[in-house]
Amino acid sequence: MKTVLAAAIGLFVSMLSQAALADESGFLKSIGGTWSGRGIVITRIGSSPVNVTCKFASKPSGTALSMSGQCRGLLVVRRAVSADIRATGAHYGGTYIGPSGRPSSLSGTRKGGTISFAVRWSREINGDRSAAMTIEKIGTHGLRLRTTDKDLKTGRNVVTSDIRLSR
Fold first, then answer.
1. Quick check: 86 and 92 in contact, CB under 8 A?
2. pTM score, whole prediction
3. Cα separations (Å) of 160 from 41, 70, 111, 135?
4. E strand or H helix at 108, and its extent?
5. Of 159, 154, 150, 107, whose CA–CA distance to 129 is shortest?
6. Each residue's pLDDT tens digit, 128-142
């Protein structure tokens, strides 16, 4: 009886895990494609925001997503940015390469249409190495990429990038 019960529990957990992976795969597939849009970037807390125009290609592959693109600001400055993320059950992890060209680590979860990440920068930015980033699906044709960082002087969270994209 114990063996049958253990096998039944194992089968149930396995089915839940497969359903979770299928769910993440479907979500990542839904944000695949070519995206373009505008937004703002603050290079350092306290500095003025820079208006940017961005283009991204998002390529899903099962429970992984690769997003790469370029943002342009001040008419002449172009910066390549990319992210490679993977879902393992309910957890998301990956790497983000921002304008500095240095890889930073991402770790988070998805709730509804938003993946929320804790970012661990490869070097100090705004006085520390941590920030938060979200990838938010908005309807069927919209995507919002947003980064927030803590102002160590005031303790308040500051939006350091907010980019709204569409297909």
1. yes
2. 0.84
3. 6, 17, 22, 14
4. strand 103-111
5. 150
6. 999 999 999 999 999
